[in-house]
Structure formats: C-alpha cells, structure tokens
## 1
Amino acid sequence: MAFRDRVALLIAHIKTELPDLTLHDITHVDALWRVASEVIGDDYPINPAEAFVLGGAFLLHDAAHCRAAFFKGGLEEIRQTPQWQDAAALAGCDGQTLSETDPQFQRVLFDALRVLHPLKAEDLPFAAWGDQPGDTLQLLPHDELRDAYGHVIGQVARSHWQSPHELEPFAAQSITAPVCLSPCSWEVNPLKLALILRTADALHMDAKRAPRFLMQISPPQSRVSAEHWTFQSKLNMVKRDEARQEVKITGSPFKAEEQQAWWLAYDAARLADRELDAAWLLLREKGLPPFAVREVAGVRSPHAFANLVPAQGWLPVDTEVRISQVHRLVESFGGAKLYGDEPHWALRELLQNALDAVHAWRKVAGVEGLEGEIEVALEPAPADEDQCWLHVTDTGIGMSRYVLTQVLLDFGRSLWRSPELSAEWQGLAASKFEAIGQFGIGFFSVFMLGQQVKVTTRRCEQIDGESNQYVLEFSDGVRARPVLRSPHPEEKLLKHGTRVSVLVSKDKFERMPCCASIDLSSLLAWLAPAIDIDMYYREASHSRRVVVKAGDWTGLSSEQLSSRIYGQAFDFPFVKILKSSSAVVAGRVAREGGFYISGGLNFLESAVCVGVVQGLRAGLVSGLSGIVFCRDQSDLTRKNAIPDVDWQDIRCWAEAYKNELLRRHELDIKNSAMLAAFGRKDDCLILGSMNGGDVKNAELAEIMRSNKELVVHYGSIDLNIDFSTSQQRSFRPEPLLLCLERYPLPSWIAMIENADFDGSLKNIIWSIVSEVWGGDVEWRKGDAMVGVCDGQQVWRECWIARRTEFQAQQVVSP
C-alpha cells in the first residue's frame, strides 16, 4: 500500500498543474481496476505477479503530468527537454525566456507534459526524492520488487501512449518470478498487461472522472476542456455484455446546447472501440487468451449510440464532412487538377520532400555544413520498352512505420506542421527547422507520373521493435490498398533516407519539358536551381553525374546561371542581392526585359525572374530577371512568388546594378525607369526624352530655370491613334514635352517590408521642378498639345506643371 499511497500524493498535484484536465488522481487509478474487469472478464488468467505489475502501471501511466514527477529539477528539468522547446516553438514562444506569468505558459506546459509523461513514466519506478545519499524516498519502496519488476512496470506504463504495433516487442518478453517470491513461479506477460492498461484507460470516461460539483466550483477555462468535462460528467459506468462480447456506455440526455460534448463522447467511444479491436487482433496473433469484449456497443452509427447516450431535443445525424471517393479527391487535387497537364511538377514535389527530409536529418543529427544528397535515377523496366522506373532517393531522416502508414497516406496532413512532430522527432520543431511542404498533398502528385509506386524508407534512428526498413507498395495508384512489406535484398537502402520509385510511361516523359532523349538532368537543374544539397542524376547502368552542386548558384557565370534557369546562355549582369541583416546572398537578378529568349528548352516562356524557396523553383517574380529566394508559399499552384528581402536590400541591389550598367555603358532610359522604381534617385539616371535627346537631373533643372511650364507624357507619342499607318508623317514635338518611360511597379513590391513607393522617375521630376521653382508650382492632369504632325495639332492626356506667382495657390498632388 505504500506504493499506492505515495503515488496518490504525487498525482494529486496534476489538478493544480493542469486544472483543465479531467481528474487524473487516485480515483482514476482505482477506477481502472473496475473498468479492466469489465473488459477482460471474470476468468481471465492473471497471476499475482502480473496483478502487481499491472497495478504499478495503472499508478504510473499518467503520474508525470506534473512537475513534481521530475524529481531532478522540477520545472527547470522540464525546460531543458527538447519537448518543452518544441512545444514553445509550436506556440510561437521562446522556451528559454517563457515565464509562468506569460499567457502561453499553461499551453506550453500542457503540450510538453502530454508528450513527456509517458517517457517519464518509464523512469518513475526508480525515481528517488531527497537531497542526501541514503536519505531518499522512492515511490516503490520494496527494493527487491522494484529491482525485479520496476523496468517492466515502467515499460507497460509508457506503452499506453504508443501505437498498437509498437507493442509487438512485448510478445517476446516473459519475466519469471524473483527470488523474493519463491517458491512461486509466476511469469509476467507484458503484452497482455499493456493491452489491459490501454483499453481500460480508453474506456474510463464517466462522471467520477469529471464530477459535476467540481466543474461548477472550478470551471475549465478552455472551450474544448469544458466540453470534455461535460460529456464525461453525463456518462455512467461501463458495463460488459458477455453474450454480445461488447461493452456498453450509457449516460443521461444531452441537451441541444451540449451537442459538441455529445459528439466528443461518440468520438471517445469510437476510439475505445479501435483499441479493443487492436487488442483482439494482437492477442489472437500472439496466441494469447482474448478479452471478454471486443467492441463498444453502438459506435457503428450516431443513431445507435444515441439509444445508449440520448440526445434531448435534437437528432445526432452525422453531418461531418466526409469523402466517399477518396481516390477521386486525391487524383484531382493531388494531381492534374492542381498542377495541370504538367507532370514535371510532380517531380518537383518529390524533390521537395527529399529536400525537407535531408534538412530535417541535418537538424536531428546535429550535422553542420552541406552533408546529405539527392539522386534521381532512370532505369528501364524489365520486359517493357515503353516504360521505365524513375527513382528519387535521399539520404534524409527516413520514416517510421507510423509516419509511413498513418501520416504519409493521410491526404492533407503534414507531419512538419502537426503537434505529432515532437513525439516523432524530439527537438526538431525547436531547432527552427523550416519545411517547404505545408499542405500534406505533395506526395500524391506522384500518381500523375504512374500508378505503380514504391516507397522504400529507412529511419535514421531505428525505433525499438520496428523493422530497419519498410516498403510501401502501390499497385494501382490510390484505387487499391497499398501493401506494407520488408524490402527485397536489391531494394534495401544502404543509408538512412527514402526512395520513391514510380513506373513511368514514355509518353509522360514526352509531355515533360525535357529533351527528346529523356535526359532529365536539365529539367532537374531547372526545378532545383539553387538547393543547398548535392543532386545527382543517373541513367540505367551509367555512372551518375552531378546536376547541382550544393550552393553553387552564387558562383556560376551569367551564362551558366541563365542556362540553368532559362535553358539558354546569356552574358548578362545578374547582380547579387545581399540581405542586409546577414550578408547572405538572396538572389542574382537583372531587369526583366534585359534579354529575350528564342529557342532553348521547350519549357521556357520568358526570362521573368525565377523565385525559389530553399532553392526549389516556386514561381515567377515579375519585373526582374534571374533568380531570387522567396518567402514560404501559400500559392498551391506555384505561379507567383514574393522575394524574401526588405526594401533596403532592394535599394542596395539597385545601386550595385546601376554601377554594373554604367560599367557596361548600358544605363538607358528603360533601366533608369526600373532603377527609380526600386528606390534610386541618382543624378546619372535618364529621366526621359525631350526634343529627341535624353534628359538627366541637371539638364532638366537648367531647362526649368528659364521656363514656366513643363508637359509630362508617359511613353512615346503613338501617332497611329490619329493618322493612318500608311501615311508619311512629319512630327514636331512641343519643345517642353518630356516623355517618360513607364515602368509598372510589380504587385509583390507592396508586400515588401518598408517599401518606398515614392521612388519613380515621375517623383524625381516633381522634386526637381519644385526645387527649381521654389515650390511655386501647380500640377494638373489634362489634355495638352504635345506637337504638330503634318500641320495638325496632336493632343494627349498629360501632367502639366506651371509656375505660379504665389506659393499659397492650391497645389494639386499628382
């Protein structure tokens, strides 16, 4: 009883630490015995040693939901764990500085303890409280029993948080009785005890766990917690129906305003049903006696469950959004409906997954530098000349069986963006790892390429009891269930990582923007022009070759860079953008329209700037040419991208670009308009043309000193508006007509931090005129005569500046 009494004192702290939780105190532990009896039946074989171990697991399975369980340092010990840092990162907090008075503290503590408590439960049988050696107290005070059974108590307690398949290693274990129990020969089977714990824990949901009076005097603060308290407070004790091999959950009626609580009760009952089903399958597979019940009554439909847990004044019709034809959704929105008839984007998604996997491995393994690689290989399919196998292999983090079968196959679910990330990879969220993948649909685009797909994976850190490698094989896309198996010898990966293999018909390759020889190397470089991972290409039995060297894009010549991103080489001044905060190269860009593509690879349309996210092609950036790193995308179609720079970065690039153009003697009116739009106001810029000649700052100022009017027109004067194109025309412009080059500001500039929209040729001219005339200027927009053509006046809409006699006259801002 000392064991129980000490744990009771410990778990009494849970209500104080996590007040929104339903009761996890000794009343919950004691109730598990009653619930377990209903599950396994009266005659289930359990010997006294197994009862002791099961009781210990009951006591400890939730005991680490409080800081007192962290006997080495309490809250500070929790703060040092990767689970705390992950929880803080997911909450958008700094785990090191988060204080108990911070509004987010309770959420972070809850999330951290939910992940930590099963891990800590394994240590609690051996935990010791006290400062002096020899003067410590332990939860389990009997030394011999603790030495004999402490480890299995901890393992069973921890297992309640694991997936059912992770319990399989227990089947190989059997603990014989310690000497202190002689002459008894009881053996402990951990598997059946683990299954009893998890099924009883799932089924313990009744009013004793959520007392109504306690809920009134200490109401839960969050809406979700309140609904959990409500549904459990209305449920009765579970009861076994021996004849039907099911357990009944009944309760008092739920009013219309308690609908959400009723649905939580229904979902909890379905979860318990899945636990019973998994237990029944595992016990049968391992040749162990089955439990007395194998399902929860009424969970097959809301209507049936309402016969046991009534709804008062409303009908529990399941109106939850559901997908009856999953394969149709996946085929549509994971493929051609999203990406169009452009199968090369499916290849890009596979490269993205590989890139994320390598980046994650670098964080988990603490690897510095550019280690890891991606290989794309093309191999002929045996006995079929019209098809070939496309393999995309990475040396990344790899996948566990759970991630491979539960997360990867869940359309729209991304491991990187879910709370499960901390449980799967401790510390990854806190490491500031940023995945490109956000939506959990990229993998399914592989079925645009072919219907036969194999995913071979090897996790970089093997999980106890799991196979070293798995193959998930699809024989008919998503229309048939995939098969999970061990890899054949020739399929095994030599290193950690993942290989996605798809059988592709040659007509698919013909629709890809690559060469007729189906050499993918140019396409791979086009899709991943600036990644920080070495990427290789191998065809058939030939030696592989480097397609992209990690980070090499910053050192390529302009011809090499334009060849990679456009498929055609140009000698053009791609000037680097440096991020002012870190001096990291964020792009190599020039003005859009500085060169034009003719020919080249057939997937090229124009020389618009290529936006990349972590080096992968992500969309186009209008107004520029070249390549620039961009923000994470919310555009699923990957058409447009927003540069990941601020306005100062843009202005510094424009300065460097201006200097390069001056060196090349290429600073013309078009480039001047672009530079002004990006914040430059230099004297060397060409403001426009007047009387057939270029006008700069000083020249315009001199003209304004001796004149009282200026007419500004955007663009050259198009006489085709007024005259027949077949006529010979003689046009004489007005002497004070200044024609500007129009440079439309790209839409993405509005999203750049601290962007200054005053930077344009028009505003530079406005400033010069105001400075020369001393502010005595009136601007108006209207029709003005811009010249004479063949004796006829030509009028256009312009901005007209006139010098006024007094500054007080109203000034119209353009």
## 2
Amino acid sequence: MGIEGVGARVARKEDKRFITGGGRYVDDMVVPGMKHAVFVRSPHAHAQIKKIDVKKAQGMPGVVGVLTGKELKADGIGNLICGWMIHSKDGTPMKMGAWSPLAVDKVRYVGDAVVIVVADTKGQARDAAEAVEITYKELKAVVDATKAIQQGAPQIHAESDNNLIFDWEIGDAKATDAAIKSAAHVTRMKIVNNRLVPNAMEPRAALGHYDKAEDHYTCWTTSQNPHVARLVMSAFYNVAPENKLRVIAPDVGGGFGSKIYIYPEEIVCLWASKKTGVPVKWVADRTESFLADAHGRDHVSMVEMAFDKDNRITGLKVDTIANIGAYMSLFSSCVPTYLYATLLSGQYNIPAIHANVRTVYTNTAPVDAYRGAGRPEATYLLERTMETAARELGVSPAELRRKNFITSFPHQTPVIMNYDAGDYNASLDAAMKAADYAGFAKRKADAAKRGKLRGIGMSCYIEACGIAPSAAVGSLGAGVGLWESAEVRVNAVGTIEVLTGSHSHGQGHETTFAQLVNQRFGVPIDSVSIVHGDTDKVQMGMGTYGSRSGAVGMSAIAKALDKVEAKAKKIAAHLLEADEGDIVIENGEVKVAGTDKSLPWFQVALAAYTAHNLPAGMEPGLKETAFYDPANFTFPAGCYISEVEIDPETGVTDIIQFVAADDFGNIINPMIVEGQVHGGIAQGIGQALLEGAHYDGSGQLLTASYMDYTMPRAGDLPSFKVSTSNTPCPSNPLGIKGCGEAGAIGSPPAIINAIADALGIVDIAMPASPSTVWSAIRAKKH
C-alpha cells in the first residue's frame, strides 16, 4: 500500500474548493444574455385546466416569455417516460400515464408544472408568474395507495383502471403457501415504510442555452448521469438531436438518487431557450424541492414468515402496495420490483419466497429511487419481521439470525439473486463485540433505576449494487445497459487525465479514482485529473447511483489502465533493450526487474508522443479506452446494532450507541468509506426518528418546509462505531462491493427494533417521533 495508493486514508482533493467556496454549481453558471425562469405550479392535487390567461403576465416589466403546455406540445416535445418496463403477472405491460413537461388539460399533484415565465430577473419572473390566471375545475384526490386501488377512487390516469399500474410477482407461490401451512410458527406483520423527501444540499437547477448560429443546445443541470439525460432528451422527448445537445453536470451538491431522473424543468428550459431566443436558468427554491422532487419509499406490506420446529425459516410471503405518485418517474417501476423483492432473502437461507407487488398512482409527487432504492424497504421488512419473530419464539434475535445465515457461497436465492461471497457471522460477531451486546441487560437495569426505558435492536442487511450486468437487467425490462466507460490519457509530460462516465456529487471520485492510478503507476495524485459530467468531453457513460462507481466505474478505469500499462511496458522494453516481461512500473519509474536500468515515468510518456523511437508498427500516443460490464451484482452486507434510551414522560428517544460492522470488499480509501457510512446512517436515523412526508386528504403537502419536515441535526446523532471486514467481490477485477447506500439501508430497522424492545411492543410507526413514542407508551398502559 502506497502513501497515496489503494488503501490509504488520503484527504479528499476536491474538498479544498468546496470548503473555500470555490465549487462551481449550476447556479454559478452565467451565460451572456441569460434570463431567469419561474414555473407556475398547480395549487391543486387533482384538477382539470379550463383556461390559462397569460396576457397580463406577458406585459409585465422584464418579461421575455410566458409559455404553456399547448405551445410545448405544438412544437413536438414528448412526454416524460419510465425507462424500465414491467409486466403484470398476467403478461400485460405496465400502464404508463402521460406526463407532459407542462400540464395541458389536467394536473395530478400539487406542484405539477403548468406555465414557465422567463424574465430579466428572478424577481420579475416571480411577479409575472403570480399574474398568470389559471381557471381550474377541482377534482377529488386520493393520496393513500391502499385507498387509490379501491373501487370508486378518483381515476388519475385513463390508462390505469383503479389506478393500478401493474400487479407483479416473483418467487414460488405454491411452495411458499405450503411452507406457511406446515410451519411450527408463523410471524405475521404489517410493515409500513414511510415516504421521504430526499433534501440534497443543493436544490435542483437547470440552465438551457440554444445557440441559433450553431443550431446547438447546451444544458447545465444537477444530474447524476448527464449522458443518460442527453440520450433521453434527444431520443424520447424530442428536445434536440443527440449530436446537437451537450449536457453538463458540474459540481453537484448531493443527489441521493433524486437527481438520476430527467425532470420537466430541464426539458422546458431548453425548449424555452429556443422559443424565446435567450438562455434560460431555473433554480428551485426549497419549497419547490419538497413539492416537485421525486420522493422515496412509501410502501405498505403484509408479511408472513414461517419457521420449523428448530426455528429455521421455511418460507416468506410478502404482499406490497407501492405508491408511485402521480406519474411514473424514470426508474420508478424497478424500485419496488427488481431492487426490492429480489433482496427479500436477505442474509438468510430461505427455501421458499413469494412476493406480490402492486404499484399505484396517487395524487402525490412522483416516487422513485432514494438512497438505497428498494433495498432499504426490503431490509426494513425483513429485519423487523426477524426481530419480532425472535421475541415471539423467545430466543435471542442474534442467534435466530445466526441459525438462518447463508454460510456457503455462491448461493442462489429463490428470488433471482446469486450471492457470490460473504461472511455474515463475521459482521455479526464484530457488531456484537463493539456494542457489548452481552452487557446490555445490566445497562437496561441501570437505566430503569433512573426511570428510563432502554432497548437494543439489530439489523443484518444485504444489498445488490452495481446494478448490472446489462444483459440481465435488459432481460428484466431495463431500457439501457448498465456498464461503465473510462478513458485514460497519459500526457506527454507524464501527467494523467481519467475521463469517466461515472459522476461525482459528494462521493470523492477525484481522490479515489486518482488513488487507483497512483497504485498502478506511482504518479502523485496531484498529477492525476478526473474529468466527468460533460457529454462533450467524456464518451458515453451511465452515471452514478446504486453504489456502482467503485465496482463498475473504477473497474472500467482498471481495464483502461491495463491497456496503458501494456503499451507503456512495450515502449520501455524497446527503449531499455529488455524483455517486455521483465518491465515493472512502480513509484513513478519504469524498471527492468533485477537490474538498475530504469526510466522515469514521464520519459516513457514523452517517448510515446515524440515517436522518435517506438517499436515497429506502434502508433504514437499513450491513451486508452475501456468499457466494463460486470458478470454479476455486488453484495455488500453487514450488521448494525442500535441502543436507545427513552424518557417515558416525554417520549424522547436518545441513541446511546450505534455500531456498524460492514463488509464492502476491498476498500480504496477507508476515510471516505467511513464518511459514506456516517452519512447513510444519519439519513437512516432521520427516517426512523424524524422524517416523513405527509399529505392531507385533499392532496396538500403538509410537510413542505423545514418548519414541518424534520431533518436530523448533529445533536440527534451519536458518535458511530464503524468497522469493516473484507470478503473481496469475485465478480469485478478490484474486489469492490460498494458502500454508498449501506448506512441508509441497515439503520432504520436497527433503530425501530431498539425502540420496540425498550417499550416492549411489537411495532411502532416511522418516524418514531416523541409524540408517537409517547402515544405508544400510553396505549400500552391502557
């Protein structure tokens, strides 16, 4: 391990510009002649648009244009799509309702965009937006997915009867029913996974610029995958031909999944730029983000877990209703299906599993991937059920899990996934030791003497990361491949540029990707530049989500480095008059093994470009490209333990300790990994204790600001005890599994299990706020 190579705790290179205010975000971009946009959004959850009058707004100071959905449609701009086809169990395709970037005849949730106003300043655009007069005929709304599929519920899209998008299943229903029927014990639960708002630090933004002289479009956007944005906007939305559209995602202040998708605003800003003849910038305010960003989670499930007389799981049956919101977002269909139900085996050897998933339209913001995307929902369901089963059976939650762990790999689950490697006992043992699990009874008794309720909870999670291979996801309905690309350019002076299709929005790629190069060639990481986020600079790539940047993105870089290394060795062998097999590259030098003959790295690079003395037939230059499509998903796993103390008089829950023992395979930078885990746990604690998006019966979002939507603060979080074990992933050349989502996946059930243990109850709803906990205490007493 070098000082800056793989495994080193290197401080992030990019942090210098971020913490000194030197970041370049979309809102920092200024284009000559640029104007500002404000969207007029529906105040109703469900209504017909009877009339739009823009005359008054058009005449206001500074206004450049006031544009409607009818004009957008007249120009041939297409509807937004869902990019993953799911078929119901009867073979019929999912019912995708039309989603116009600007609503034309009907609005379906509060925040639905109806009109764009473009003006010299944002203030002028806002004033003019208030002057737009829209006449609505309000319709009945439905926000609860379980009610939306009932007969007589308001019909949101004509395409879907009773608002049902698809009714999908996976697994063996007969075998599962038989296991439940013959079981010695069955644990039954209703599991609700609460709706969340992502709340990235930087709100979404878009700047569209149409250059009439060049007939060329440029879109600066807060995107996690700019190449996919360009592809979809050109191929499906008819905004611009792909060869005439450049998409740039500069510094992006967090994404968490919510910036994967293409939203109406990017499309409309590009179209409005051509329509008005000026560059158009839109930046969301925080209330817009609450209303119009894709939300996460929102599942209601019934679960039955069957055990034999030896407490081994024999079957798992799950029936889930997933709220998709008013429209199908880009990847919304795969989240409650192939990213959720395929992980219902968890870390356990379960011979029979069956899951049925119904997805439903409601008059709420669209729901799509949010940190973990389906995996948190699966883990929460499974781990809450396991903890409850242990208490019903009167056995240790830890030992019930241990008895049912998968211990032999590879392991084929009944729900598609083939786990390639893992050691779940190692994570469980590490977590229990760090948490002093054996000493909990004494701590509980001590807390009781102080009038406090103390509880301990556990969660053993597994996730599927990388979201590949392409052939597999294609067979399951994905509209794109999920490979990654890389180009490694060695400059004539030996500095290196890595162009990657992955995108960094807080993950530290500029550091970790450079560490990989340093490990290979010994070049200082300050001599390595990472280029991403610009479709004119980087060849086609698939972006960052699903903890794929290491396992897939860095594997593509490794393949390109292999090619560069092979060519560099050929050049060096020629220059040093040595056998190519004897050449080694280390510490910035190219050497002949076993001799004192060497060349500095830059000299080999220079030789490649001067081309004065290259091997016969070799092309000049030192630049290579690679695409990587892995053979399997990766499977990070771990064990989390939470210990809480509750004040029975107020319902306030304090997290006394939180332990995370993870297996991420090989690790590039332990410090960055720890930061990712810390951030994920903070979000998971937010879901468990504080966060929840709530609509009233008419479809108004009641939690549309930080006054009502509670985010975790430093005082809500303990100091985390984190550790890692390592079973390298055999499915990629670097042995990486991924770490970005684990904390958000494993932490909510650990917290809720601890609270249920403290209160001596079966279940409590998330978020377990003080009022919710206090009510549960009172309900138990009475």
